[in-house]
Write a structure and sequence with these properties.
Layout: E1 2-3, E2 9-12, E3 17-20, E4 28-35, E5 38-43, E6 48-51, E7 56-58, E8 67-74, E9 77-82, E10 87-90, E11 95-99
Antiparallel strand pairs: 1-2, 2-3, 4-5, 5-6, 6-7, 8-9, 9-10, 10-11
């Protein structure tokens, strides 16, 4: 999977790249998956999309700040990092603040 501007998501099937319908227009910055049927994308405005093998769906997140990276240990332990060092964790059920830097 590759992600980019205006909600672009591309998928490589082993032979060729094809576009996927993301349903969003935000800049997408990062992608991670535990398998080809369980993929997460992070982007602008606190956006996280989840793909379960059929369609991309928006997930509720506790921020509207841009998200710049996403990585997981498995499908029930995923982390996203946002502007200002904010870190979010997904436990398989919902996204929560994991670390919120104090303002100086």
């Amino acid at each position: 999977f590759l992600v980019g501007d205006e909600g672009v998501i591309l998928h490589f099937d082993g032979k060729s790249w094809s576009p996927m319908e993301s349903g969003v227009t935000e800049l997408l910055r990062a992608v991670w998956g535990s398998s080809g049927q369980d993929v997460f994308v992070a982007g602008e405005n606190g956006l996280i999309l989840h793909y379960r093998g059929t369609v991309w769906q928006k997930m509720a997140t506790p921020t509207k700040e841009p998200l710049r990276g996403i990585w997981g240990e498995g499908p029930e332990s995923i982390f996203a990092i946002g502007d200002g060092g904010q870190i979010f964790h997904y436990d398989g059920k919902k996204w929560k603040f994991f670390f919120k830097p104090s303002k100086k």
